[in-house]
Each structure stands twice: as structure tokens, then as C-alpha cells.
Amino acid sequence: MPTLQRPSRPCKECQRRKLRCDAQQPKCGLCQRARVPCEASPAGKRGPKRGHLNALRNRLMQLEETLQNRLDSEQRPQEHVQGLHHSLDSTDASQSADFLRGDVGYGDPLAQAFMLSEPSMAGDFDNLGLERFRFPDLAVSLPQIDRGTHAELDQLYFDRVHPSFPIIHKRRYLGWSKSTAKSRSQACLQKVMWILAVLLSTQTRDLINPLYSQVRQDIDLIIMDTSPCQLELVQAWTLLTVCELMRAMYGQAWASAGRMFRLLQGLRYHEIDSPREDPVASEGMIDPIRTEEKRRVFWMAFLIDHLLSIRNRWPVTLSEHMARSPQSSVTEPPSPDTCSFNECIIIATVSGRGLLRDVHGTISEAYGGSRQIHIDHDEWLNLVLATRNKALRQRDDPDRLATFTQILGQVTEILFCKSLMTMNKSTSNENCTQEYRCRALRAAEKIVLFATDLTALHFSMVHPFMFIPLFVTAEFLYENRALGDGAFLTQLRNLVGILGQLTNVNDLERSYLDLLSRSCISSSRGVLEQSAQQT
């Protein structure tokens, strides 16, 4: 059959792959090589989608109404305070101020822990002893980013952020980075990447707040859309959670993490390596790079989930049992060729099993399970931890993620020993308790040695989540500071000194100690008091 030129549009397959179609009949060259049906793509309708203009008008009316309501609410407190000011004498004024502060609950410790700023009213409220109230900006003007700054931020991200969070394929991203036809999810992802790049830099830090405000507004609008979720949206949620943790916005970070976990589960990314046939798994045969990005974003969320559980003593949300279990990777001998990200996931998996050991033991005993099963599980954890931590210490010239994994492995050892110390204390087995106490102390000493090396590095070379394992270690040492003939207290003082030297990326003028005051863990206040005694 002679080859004819199709006078119509490109075929669906070429359009899906974003390739140029040679429009040959009966099949184009790509479809003929791929042995798939060749169908011409339907003609697209010109102009906006039906109902789009009405939706824009409705959105504009909502914004105008919101703006007017906020302006009215800003004026009403001022008018109300003027009446109070004329009716109260100077003696009652301070009492009224205290009452108003207590009435709204902004002085509550839980509110402060969730980073709620204390509001106050403008104008005459200053006479009542209250601070100025800062209403949130309805719209934050985003500075114009030229091509030079654009390229610099992209490069900064892959130089300083990507080594710690390797979930973006660089070449694939750079292919659409400067395109004017980006999807909303891609534009949102790009802004989050730029925020992280600026956080690990000393330049253009004035972009952080405008970019963050724009991202929060855009990502909420995208998530409410009924169109299918794109991979870039999942990546944006993941990196947004990272950004909020780095900025010590813990309450917002926990909420973002929850939405990220549900989004991953809804898209069934946990089944990406499932042996059964499903759309997510079969896609890997068509686009292996995109499949690898989905796999990595799931395991990064898995890591974040376990870090939050370690930090706040919460149950994990993304269990290893919902995905293809990395059992073989955990139990097989460590290889020096294993990449840092995989090794970090393995350590997080082991830590998750350690977090669940008490729960599993209680459930097993409640249903008549054997005590021996619990003992066997502890022995398995003990062996895996010893093997993994030994292999991690033997790595030559570890990168920032490998160093983070080394410290996380020792923290897992501390938490494992802490759990066994608690169990043996209830059984009055003092010998075993002393053994696990010594093991935990040795692990803390290794963490202090690792952390000492971090003080000589530029803050961008330290993993942004390093504060999590260091804080857990400091709190454990504080809780046991009276034990070990002062050995725990000595290591606590050493670690507190190191925390005072590590730079807080959210505020380059402050250290990790500033983050302790924003923690919800009660032991953090004790560590902070210890640092005050040392200074």
C-alpha cells in the first residue's frame, strides 16, 4: 500500500508522547514501530472552556466580598476600642488587656507550639498593652523573576536541595522549566523548588514569603479541581511539607503531610511495584522515568512519615506493609554500592518496626500469642541494627544524605534500647537494663561525634532534617541525665553546644536552639533550660 501524507492533525499517540507526527497513512512511523493503533486526534475547540468565564466572574466576586469583609473587620475593632478607651480608667485598662488576651486563647502553650502568632489591634489597642495585629495579605505581589534568576534558582535547587531529597528528574524538569505552557501543577512545583533553593542560600531570601503565599493559594485551588491529579502536584505537596518543616511551621507541616499521604494513597502509588497488573505498575513499561519519580516520591513521603513519628512519638501512617515490602533489602548484607537514599529508606523501615514493637507485643499477648515471637522480633531488630550501623560507619566520604542516615541509624538504636530499658524496668531485670543503657549511651556518643563534624560545614551542606534526630537524642540524654555517673549529662552538654553552632536555615542569624523553643515535646524545654545554664 502506498504511503500517503495525512492532511489532518497528528495522531493521538504522538500527541500523548509530545512527539512530532509524520502523518503518514495508514499509520505514522511511530505507531508502526510501536505496533499500536494510529488514530487522528480530535479537533480542539477554540476559545475558553464552557463555563470558564462564569467561573472567573464568580471568583472575582468572592474575592471582592472577602476583601470588603476583612476591611470591615479591621475597622470594627478600632471603633470598639475607642469606646473602651473612654469608658475605662488607667487601672482597669491593664486588666481588660489581660482578659482580652486570655479570652481568645493566644497565650495558650499549645497555640504557641503550633506557631500561632499573638494578634492585637491597631491604633488605640496600643494603649491597652496589646501588640499590633497583622492581618494576612489577601494577595502578595510576587517579584518578577528574570531569566538569569530563573536559571540560578534551578541550579541552586539541584546543587543544594536535590542531594537531600532526590525525587525530581533533572533533565525531565529542565525540559519544561522555562516553558510558557506549564500546567498549574508544574508551576506550583517549580515555586516550591525555588523556595527550598532560597532557604539553602544567602541570596534573594526576600522571595521566600511571596513564593510561599502564592504556592499555598495555588495548591489549594488545584486540589479542589476535579481534573486528574498530576505527578507534579504530588511532588509539590511533598516538597511543600519539607519547606514547612524547614521553616519550623510545624502545625502547617503536619496538615500538609496528612494531605500528601492521602493523595499518595488515592493515586495508589504504594502499588507501583505490586506484582499484580494495574495501571500504575503497567505505566512503567511506557515511561520508566516517570514511574521512578512516582516510586521516589512515595518513599520520600514514607521517610517523612517515619521522621515525624520518631520526633513526635506518633504511629506511622504509611506502613511498609502497604507497599512492596523492602524485607529483602533490609535483611540482605549491606552493599557499598547501595545509594544513600535507599539506605535511608531501609533505616527508616527498621525504625518503623522499632516504633511498632510495643504495639505488636501488646496485640500478640492479647490474642494469646507466644512471648517467644516478641523475643525473636527483638533479636532480629538487634541484628539488623548492628549490621546496618556497622556498614554505614564504613562508608568513605559520605554525602549529606549518608551522614543523615548514619545519625538516624544511631537514633534508631537509642529508641530501641529505650524501649527495652522500659520493658526490663517493669520486670526488675537490672542487668539487662544496664546493658541497654550502655548501648544507648554509646550510640549517643557516636551521634555527638558525627554532629561535631557538621559544625565545620556550610549550612547548605547539612541535611535540612538533621534537627530531628539531634533533638530526639538531646531529649533522651536530658531524660536520663541523672544516670551513668554523669556520662549522659556530659554528652547532653556536648550536644547542646553543637546545636548552638548549627545554623537555622529559617533564620541565618539563629541556631538550632531557636527551633527547640517551638517544639511540642515537653523534654525540649528541659534541653533549652540546659543550654541556658551553659551560657
Automatic annotation (TrEMBL):
GO terms for biological process: DNA-templated transcription. This is Zn(2)-C6 fungal-type domain-containing protein. Its main location: nucleus. One of its GO terms (cellular component) is nucleus. The keyword Transcription regulation applies. Pfam families: Fungal_trans, Zn_clus. The keyword Transcription applies. SUPFAM superfamilies: Zn2/Cys6 DNA-binding domain. PROSITE patterns: ZN2_CY6_FUNGAL_2. It is found in: Nucleus. Signal peptide: none annotated.
